[in-house]
Specification:
Helix content is 40%, strand content 19%. The chain is an alpha/beta fold. The protein folds into 2 domains: 5-149 and 284-355, Rossmann fold (3-Layer(aba) Sandwich), CATH 3.40.50; 152-278 and 361-386, Rossmann fold. The strands form 4 sheets. The chain has a 6-stranded mixed beta sheet with strand order 1-3-2-4-5-6, sandwiched between helices. A 4-stranded parallel beta sheet has the order 8-7-9-10, with helices on both faces. The chain has a 3-stranded antiparallel beta sheet with strand order 11-14-15. Strand 12 and strand 13 form a beta hairpin. The longest helix is centred in the C-terminal third of the chain and has 20 residues, at 305-324. The chain is globular and about 65 Å long.
């Protein structure tokens, strides 16, 4: 399913899928879901047409399997990574178009801004793209669910697992803005809790092209592990620099926010031996493989946790609407927080009082090229971190909705 950036930016996609007769308690007999993503910018490979494909699959499967007594309408829009544009679109969707639930919301600033509007309008936001823990702490909302990932979960899972394996000393290369700061802080907590220590760190600006000096400093630290607290082009460039200096032969490289897409972009030859963490891997079991193969036919790539999480979020929401017989936000949110989520994305998943959906995370190692048997066969699961251990405990929550 190929879609031009112009089409996506114009938010012209509207898929009306018949689901049966008018349902009592459902506004106009239709449940409307908005995918608010980055359709043309820096995060388009993580969001964009891939989010739309996952959303369409979720709606199609729900209609086919659940045969609900209401219709489902899917609309999409490009927020262009600008909170003001995202807020304007969310208001229009809520006030004019009758959208019940918004999802994706990649980019933390966008997610926080849309969360405020969603609370004001008493609708539902299920964030699957952004990972800021502010959404489950000081800026938590009864109307927002942080569904797919957060910086605490990935940092805590990867750093803790590697440290417990015996690699105790860490050195960080961190991008000098909120993402790098949050990842390094959360990872340091996990490292120390597992009996390790951070022997040093160095900040780098966004958009760094030459990582030579940064990588040499990390190499000379003698640390067992070099943690990369960055993303996107910075992550790819820093990984390639570690390969250029032969660092992976003696030190473990841990790109804290890496995904399968980054491994694909870097290539197996340059990324072999890296450790990363995700909440979903397409080749984990028969269920994940079957769904991922369907996704591949739509997008010519295998999905990552953002797409699988979005599929799961929409499915969970629609099930809650059907089971409660209403699209009233509070009723549906309360019901979702009572549900156990079991699907291709999560097993035994639960949505907590702070809005965090808790499920298991997977520590993955990049395979050597010779061990890869087919395209996208890049990773091997090395460890499973239970949801209870992966995420920030409620006892540490700064969310006003949580009664400690």
């Amino acid at each position: 399913m190929r879609m031009s950036g112009r089409l996506m930016a114009a938010s012209a996609l509207a898929l009306l899928i018949a689901g049966g007769a008018h349902a009592q308690g459902i506004s106009n007999g239709t449940v409307k879901i908005g995918v608010l993503g980055d359709m043309s910018g820096v995060f388009q490979d993580l969001s964009g047409a891939s989010s739309v494909a996952a959303a369409k699959m979720a709606v199609d499967d729900f209609i086919k399997n659940e045969k609900p007594p209401f219709k489902v309408e899917l609309v999409t829009s490009d927020h262009q990574n600008k909170p003001d544009i995202a807020v304007s679109r969310a208001r229009e969707w809520y006030d004019v178009d009758g959208v019940d639930m918004v999802t994706d919301a990649i980019n933390s600033a966008v997610a926080l801004a849309v969360s405020g509007v969603t609370r004001e309008k008493n609708r539902v936001l299920m964030v699957t793209g952004a990972g800021t823990t502010a959404l489950i702490n000081e800026q938590c909302s009864p109307n927002t669910i942080l569904y797919a990932w957060d910086t605490y979960g990935i940092s805590n899972s990867l750093a803790g697992s590697i440290t417990r394996s015996g690699k105790k000393n860490w050195y960080f290369l961190s991008v000098d803005y909120a993402l790098g700061q949050a990842i390094e802080k959360d990872a340091t907590r996990a490292i120390e809790a597992a009996g390790g220590k951070v022997v040093g760190s160095r900040k780098h600006p966004t958009g760094t092209a030459d990582f030579s000096s940064f990588v040499l400093t990390a190499q000379n630290s003698g640390a067992d592990v070099i943690g990369l607290a960055n993303a996107g082009g910075d992550l790819i460039n820093s990984v390639k620099a570690t390969q250029d200096f032969g660092i992976t032969q003696k030190q473990t490289i841990a790109p804290m926010a890496a995904t399968l897409m980054d491994v694909h972009a870097i290539g197996l030859a340059s990324s072999q031996g890296l450790m990363l963490v995700e909440g979903f891997y397409w080749d984990r079991n028969d269920e994940s493989r079957a769904w991922s193969e369907r996704f591949f036919k739509e997008r010519n790539r295998m999905p990552i946790m953002l797409q699988a999480g979005l599929y799961s979020a929409i499915t969970t929401y629609l099930k809650a609407v059907k089971e409660t017989g209403t699209d009233d936000a509070k009723t549906v949110l309360d019901h979702m927080k009572k549900m156990e989520i079991n699907d291709l994305f999560a097993k035994g998943g639960r949505i907590r009082a702070d809005g965090r959906m808790v499920y298991d995370m997977y520590v993955l190692a990049v395979k050597k090229p010779a061990a890869s048997k087919r395209a996208w066969d890049y990773l091997e699961i090395k460890d499973t971190i239970s949801g209870a251990d992966a995420y920030q405990p409620l006892s540490d929550s700064r969310c006003p909705l949580v009664k400690n």
